[in-house]
Amino acid sequence: MLEISFSLVAVALIALIVYSILLVRKISNVVDETEKTIKVLTTDVNVTLYQTNELLAKVNVLADDINGKMETIDPLFTAVADLSVSVSDLNDSARNFSKKAAAAGKSTVTAGAGLSALRLFTKLFNK
Hints:
The protein contains one helix and no strands. By secondary structure, the chain is an all-alpha fold.
């Protein structure tokens, strides 16, 4: 009976060792795949970082170019603003002149009508 017990324990121990070996192999395969994935990701991240650095350098150059061009254009906007003020002042002056001319025209018409009435009156009484 003792021999059967030792045999069963030996068989169980052998089964446990075989299962452990299979488990370690599977874990080893998973670790190998993980290492490969990490290498690929590291390579991809390095490429992405390199491209990002190049892109940032180009963006910086473009921003500097735009800032330089904006400095060149700023006097133009100042001149346009000054011209706008001048045109507005000219419009105000033209409006005032127009009002004065209209007022002068009314008095001229009134004076002209008065003169016409005076001429007519003089002609009637001179006859």
